[in-house]
Amino acid sequence: MQLVDDRGDRFCDVWFGVNPDDGWAFDGLVHFGDPDADPHVWQSYQRYSDGTYRRLPSFASSLDQFRRATKGS
What is the pLDDT of residues 38-63, one digit of tens each? Predict the structure, then answer.
């Protein structure tokens, strides 16, 4: 799945339950990644029984931070 901004530009990729960094293995988490590159997770969330989601330790806390870290922009 891809999320787009209000201009229709791709913002990020989203994978539900599978991890592209681990050979597409099922892990039950929600993963977000860069839409302009090969599948790579930059942020993951776990759903808890009370319906909340919590961010797991991640490469970056936002797509902007990820882009700065990986592309120098």
Answer: 888 889 999 999 999 999 988 777 76
> Long-range contact list for 19-24, CB < 8 A, 24+ apart?
19/44
| Angle subtended at Cα 28 by Cα 64 and Cα 18, rounded to the nearest 5 degrees | 65
CB 28 within 8 A of CB 16: no
- The pTM score is 0.77
Which residues have C-beta within 8 Å of that of residue 64, sequence separation ≥ 6?
none
CB atoms near residue 40 (< 10 Å): 14
